[in-house]
Amino acid sequence: MNNKIKDLLSKLTLEEKAGLCSGKDFWRTKPVERLNIPSVMVSDGPSGLRTQVDNGFNENDSRTAVSFPSGCATASSFDRELLGRLGEILGEEANNYNVSTVLGPAINIKRSPLCGRNFEYLSEDPYISGELGAAYIKGVQSKNVGTSVKHFAANNQETNRFSVSEEVDERTLREIYLAGFETCVKKSAPTTIMCSYNAINGELSSQNKWLLKDVLREEWGYKGMVVSDWGAVYDRVKGIKADLSLEMPYSGGHTDNDIVEAVKAGKLTMDELDEAVSHVLEMVFNYVENKQSGVFDMEKDHAESGRIAEESCVLLKNDKLADGATVLPVKAPAEKVLFVGCFAENPRYGGGGSSKIKCYKMTSAVDAARDAGLNIKYVKGYNEDFVTTSEALTNEALEAARNAEAVIVFAGLPESFETEGADRTNLDMPAVQNELIEKLAGVNPNIAVVLHNGAPVAMPWINKVPAILECYLGGENIGSAQVNLLFGKANPCGKLAETFPLRIEDTPCYMYYPGNGRTCLYAEGIFVGYRWYDARKMPVLFPFGHGLSYTSFEYSDLKLSKTAFKDTDGVEVSLTVKNTGAVDGKEIVQLYVSDKTGVEIRPEKELKGFEKVFLKAGESKVVSFKLDQRSFAYWNTDTKQWYAASGTYEIIIGASSRDLRLSAKVDVTSSGKKAFTITPQTTMGDMLRNREMAALIKPEFEKACEAVIGNLSDEEFARQFPFTKAAMVEMTKSNPFRSGRGKNGLTMEDILKQVENYNKALEK
């Protein structure tokens, strides 16, 4: 706390301090004019500024801003530099509109494809969410504009989002739902963290001391301010004690009074209140005293939006036709190319609710094609509401398709199907669009589908369509990106940051999502996204990390700096990637780690690195990674630490989670003293699965097996016992130490002493 803030705290009245802990109105903090404490404004994000003119929530009164691709799209870029540049642009726009803080990024995990707000979130994987989120934060804050990482934490559904309790174990929280936030905090020091609406295991995030103070503040070392999501506060005093500094929006003065009365009654100390106020003042003065120029060029940013979209679109499918050619890039003369579907003329460029941007200008695929001098033909195919059609519109589309050499169908989800505040109930696109695609494919096999959607969709027509380009919600200049990609001016390079399942019934949380209204059980635990599908050897529509190109890439020459090391030392990994095709392109190389120790239940593999590399046709480059202790660790609930068990791990290099190209095994020695505390309930098998513990227990285990089996032959053993030798060995492994009481004169005191000695040995 600097001297200025200390001085202000000494001069502020109790009532003024309480007032600073809630908003002045919907978007602004309270000023204290007599002490020259200004009010500052915050704005919705994160894919563009939704800054209100009237200080309300009417999207029609938003200031004009450039709409950039949503999180669902930008995550598919797998590009840290790109996210950083996006952040810089938003920081410049924010300065122009005197916005102190952009409310984003949103890095909640995509637990289910049904979450209505998935378009805003980055991934089902915490590693990529954290890495890209941190890059975005650094970009925004480089312009001295704050960020607000949201929604902390486990905000993975819109159904009953204000009140539902997410029932989730600590290991799952740590490994999946908190990890991305942890990365953002430690790598980029966001100005603010926004707590979520929901409760976690019965305690609202806005007043969850374990979450906000114990983990965020004390364990992760967070120095910034915690702000509430708009309307998330229930008990304001409990919130301050839990480290929630600022309540938004304006509370009508009611919660300010609660704070005052709590201090007077001794239920809240002045030191606790001062801590909250100091964080608010730091946020305010950091902005006003270091504000940068607000000059920016919307036309230039519009072009940047298109470039970002190009990097984010994913070529899902591009099969060869009967003549050996592919549909994409389009080779037919422009006048023989047919665009079908209202999304081609009126694309869904962004999400609804707090993400709704009053965009600078819209460039559709039809606009972009004609601006490029491409005389394509366009027909609607269905009505402007995206969900109804007519016989005339269908017949017009079919007749045009019969006369075309290439058909590009623009389809997807209207905003009414996915939006903040409500969850989807299925994976389906509007029936009229699915039916139209089927009919068009029946009259012209040279067909591609271009998708506009914020989350995975079912594709009942997939086997009839040779090419699919996933564009997600690509911002206001999505049309330029689409035309460049469709006609080969740009090469697709995005890859999926989420799995596209075959059926909603296949998804990890299908049986539990969205809960019973009061609670939602996270019974799938750590097995979210590709972790689930891999563990169950389950087919999917498109796997995590999948994305095609107009060229091809070859992986070779995997090298490790060492094959045996202590976990804290880490290891460097490198490989060579070659563009073996005839077109320049970018490849996203993914590194996964697989735990082969058997000490704990782990996913088959987990993403621990990614790099995007540009290669000219025929060019080769070396791609490198550095893996640290966390790359091999899981959250050990017994010892409350990240623990990498000693043993063998496999490092896997893939073009997707299911297109695995190279692998190598390493031997890791743990720096952790022990995997768990041994008790009388601990079994020999528990200890044998851990290398350090196995060394201690193996003589005892062999002695126990000898006592039971001895030198008996299989026939002799079978006459004496109703088990095989192998079964008896496994039963011996499963016996807890306490089962030795009474054997060979052992007392419980003897067993407790034995357990104590084992624990002491492991401490050394």
Describe this protein's structure.
With 764 residues, the protein is an alpha/beta fold. The chain folds into 4 domains: 3-29 and 87-288, TIM Barrel (Alpha-Beta Barrel); 298-532, Rossmann fold; 553-669, Immunoglobulins (Immunoglobulin-like), CATH 2.60.40.10; 684-763, no CATH class. It contains 22 helices and 25 strands. The strands form 6 sheets. Strands 9-14-13-12-10-11 form a 6-stranded mixed beta sheet, with helices on one face. Helix 19 (691-709) packs across helix 21 (725-734). The longest helix has 19 residues, at 270-288.
Label this structure with key terms:
single chain, 764 residues, alpha/beta, Rossmann fold, 4 domains, six-stranded mixed β-sheet, five-stranded parallel β-sheet, globular
The poorly predicted ranges are none
CATH topology of the largest domain: Rossmann fold
Largest sheet: 6 strands, mixed
Proportion of residues in extended strands: 15-25%
Q: Could you tell me the number of beta strands? A: 25
Strand order of the largest sheet: 9-14-13-12-10-11
Helix fraction, binned, reads 25-40%
Mean pLDDT: 94
